[in-house]
Amino acid sequence: MKARDLYRDVTPDWLKNRLRPVKRRAERAYIWLRVKGGQERLKPSFFIIGAEKAGTTSLFRYLARHPRVVEPLRKEILYFQAYSDRPIAWYLAHFPRLDSVAADAVTGEASPSYLFDPSVPERVARAFPDAKIIALLRDPIARAISHYHHKINKRVGESRELAACIVGEGMELQPELTTRLTTELHWLPDRVKTLASNSHPPAYYMKRGFYAEQLQNWFKYFDRDQMLILKSEDLFEKPRETYARTLKFLDLDFFDLGPMRAYNTGSYGDVDPVIIRYLSAIYADPNRRLGELIGIDFSWNGLKSD
Known about the structure:
alpha/beta, four-stranded parallel β-sheet, 6% strand, globular
């Protein structure tokens, strides 16, 4: 097992949390040293753009085990979203030197928030117009709830209950439908007013599941044959077949990985059926638009733990 895999798979989360700040500082210094080194780097030929909590880590880890694929220093570089003001040499410093890899080696990254950010597609296309783009789309109800629980479990910027998050965002998206939800939840008007007056950084648990609009932004800059759109549930249930389909899209020969376990999985308890019905109503039209856009009916029909 590689040292990186040993750290990711064996190190307990509490120790990773302790080491993360030190690891990040060391990594930042190392990147700038690589920039100054000036060596020519292998350029990324593929991007896994999202969605968040849709299996991107699992797919990336599968691809990284292929003998022709070389990982960057980080799976999630976020250059085209959070660091686009830095020189492209800083970005490329995350990738291996050309003289250190085989002539047929390929590399890429997986930044699952790229799908949602409308500023990213043009930036990627300007830098790497021939890149191949992979999107994993998960049932938006399950994705939203999984994303919420991920933030709660990791203790990253979320302390509200699920219903409060749903209502807070829903009042912006569909106020009439959301008002009916608060009635079904038996919330008093004062509670709704208090929620509306509280300011929270937007997590967009629900809006991130409006996939059609997000893909439209990518279709403006990349041909349809440059994009592979996968159903996350297929990756969860049939990882070997989905992995093989991805390899074919990337022009890579099949390489048997043996047992394929999922990564970054989680679980959560039962969700109030009232919230599930509400989310089903919210996503009915966006899911229809997605099917019309890509010509695929994903037939999402319920919530499953991940």
